[in-house]
Amino acid sequence: MSDALPRHEIRHVHNARVARGTPPDAAARAILSRETFAQAAAEISAWPGYAPTPLVAMPALARRLGLASVAIKDEGRRFHLESFKALGGAYAVRRLIEERLRAKGVTGPIATADLVAGKYRELTRDLVFATATDGNHGRSVAWGATMFGARAVVFIHENVSAAREQAIQRFGAEMRRVPGNYDDSVRIAAEEAARNGWIAVADSSVGIDAHAPSLVMRGYGLVMSEIDSAEPDPTHIFVPAGVGGLAAAVAAHVWETKGAAGPRIVVVEPIRADCVFRSVAEGRIAATLAESDTFMACLAAGEVSPAAWPFLIGACDDVVALPDEAAADAMRQLAAGLDGDPRIVAGESGAATTAALVAACRDETVRASLGLGAASRVVLISSEGATDPDTYARVVGQPASAV
Questions:
Q1: The model scores a pTM over 0.90
Q2: CATH number (domain holding residue 263)
Q3: 1 pLDDT exceeds 50?
């Protein structure tokens, strides 16, 4: 295989507890279900500017790897936020605003168009949504709060780049930088929200009620609905982890709609932030890492979200973990195009799934364990575009606009 696809370390664990052959239990379906996904899809598809993100065929990459097909779900083209996170945080804000309006006595339908037009501004302008983020979730919450007439306070930890901070701030959020890592910022955001009477919109349910994180994950389910429409029968789906929200939404959708006949779901993580890997290996949510900083910035989570866990352990088949340099190489490969394949702008976390597929196919043991072969039809979810433009230009050697 060509040096255009360099070899990297890859770690793999198979989930021996996967249970897609039996339906999700009532507790799991209260979090994510066919019905909750449909409700979220109907809402988000009515937002201004909505369009499905493309599923881009990569025939040259498939040939190089000895696979039937490879397609990349390019979430870098999601609204103008350049990330799948646009679906989750903003959707949670929309639903939580409606809940507050009901509590204030508003009856009858509450149309999104009316919220956007400011019909309820007198009731929404004092609502404050608080969240912690590595970047993309905060943009979504800030965008949703502004779009629907509320305010946002976004907490970032000390390792979040200035470019990501500025990108969130452009959506009207008040920014607060705090010491520590992502998990520290989640804890501080929850404490400040409770103290100030703000509405917490976390993408993880660690230490908090699962309601808002569940709403976030319901929004993410639209990614899988769009994949089904474009490629109804993949054999494998590679999805990035973080706290597990997107992977859980993908897994829940497959569990609900296809059961054991669905594609093999492979979760991708950095070695330096491998909370899902460790948890699946142990069969329980593993202890938080003391340090989980990684180049794949939006995957820098130290603990799995409890709301996501039932779907990760019940419906995800495998977890793989990669070194940071694998993602950097994949960013460059995707930007250059391979043997005529389309050029794709993928950020540090977005490139992780491509990096994982290449590393898996170059390791004969992992390749065999994942069942990757000449009949495999693989979908890779590229979760973000160049959401940190400075980092992207430094790694790739040119700005995203030149790709």
A1: yes
A2: 3.40.50.1100
A3: no
